[in-house]
């Protein structure tokens, strides 16, 4: 079910030349421990002003848009939540084209699925996303990713966490170093 939607998404986004990467639980499933996830989170290389591209995609696939005023909602939150009514799977499109996201999109890994190659955030970028989100489930995911991926580019992770730490005034780097030490 998830694979079919991911394949459909990849083909449609590639046809429209919209950069994207799968993040969140689906990426953790690829690189970490199996876990229950009921949605698909995608970062797309578009600004909130380009929401029309994704609204058109939602209409094409008959996805239900889960907010009343999608253009305004995306402008305020940078997220467009949708639902695939045939499967009950939620799709969250995250609009971001920051310097970090541009680099993360370029680093995305292509994973063959059916007729498509689905772009997943690199394991390092999944760790960064999870560290910034910081919820208990995200920290468990980071532990899983550290355990299963011993060859992570920790210098890349630390550099971006340091930058986010300066911008957001959160101890991301310290938390990551503690998690990395406890994983040994």
Task: Describe the SSE topology.
Elements: H1 2-15, E1 20-23, H2 24-31, E2 39-44, H3 51-60, E3 64-65, H4 70-77, E4 79-84, E5 89-95, H5 99-107, E6 109-113, E7 116-120, H6 123-133, H7 136-148, H8 154-168, H9 172-182
Parallel strand pairs: 2-5
Antiparallel strand pairs: 1-2, 3-4, 4-5, 6-7
What does this structure look like?
The protein is α+β, with helices and mostly antiparallel strands and 184 residues long. The protein has one domain (2-182): Beta Polymerase, domain 2. 54% of the residues lie in helices and 19% in strands. The protein has 9 helices and 7 strands. The strands form 2 sheets. A 5-stranded mixed sheet has the order 1-2-5-4-3, sandwiched between helices. It has a two-stranded antiparallel ribbon with strand order 6-7. Helix 2 packs across helix 6.
Note the run of SSEs as H and E. HEHEHEHEEHEEHHHH
CATH top level?
Alpha Beta
* CATH topology group: Beta Polymerase, domain 2
- Strand ordering within the main sheet: 1-2-5-4-3
Q: TL;DR of this structure?
A:
This protein is an alpha+beta fold and 184 residues long. It has helices at 2-15, 24-31, 51-60, 70-77, 99-107, 123-133, 136-148, 154-168, 172-182, and strands at 20-23, 39-44, 64-65, 79-84, 89-95, 109-113, 116-120. The N and C termini lie far apart (36 Å).
């Amino acid at each position: 079910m998830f694979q079919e939607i991911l394949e459909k998404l990849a083909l449609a986004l590639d046809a429209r030349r919209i950069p994207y990467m799968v993040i969140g639980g689906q990426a953790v499933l690829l690189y970490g421990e199996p876990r229950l996830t009921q949605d698909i989170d995608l970062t797309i290389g578009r600004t909130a002003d380009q929401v029309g591209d994704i609204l058109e995609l939602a209409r094409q696939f008959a996805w239900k848009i889960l907010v009343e005023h999608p253009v305004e909602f995306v402008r305020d939150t940078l997220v467009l939540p949708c639902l695939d009514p045939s499967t009950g799977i939620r799709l969250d499109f995250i609009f971001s084209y920051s310097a970090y996201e541009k680099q993360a999109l370029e680093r995305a890994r292509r994973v063959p699925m059916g007729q498509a190659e689905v772009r997943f955030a690199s394991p390092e970028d999944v760790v960064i996303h999870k560290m910034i989100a910081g919820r208990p489930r995200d920290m468990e995911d980071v532990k899983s990713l550290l355990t299963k991926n011993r060859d992570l580019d920790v210098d890349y992770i630390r550099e971006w966490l340091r930058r986010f730490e300066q911008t957001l005034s959160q101890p991301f780097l310290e938390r990551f170093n503690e998690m990395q030490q406890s994983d040994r």
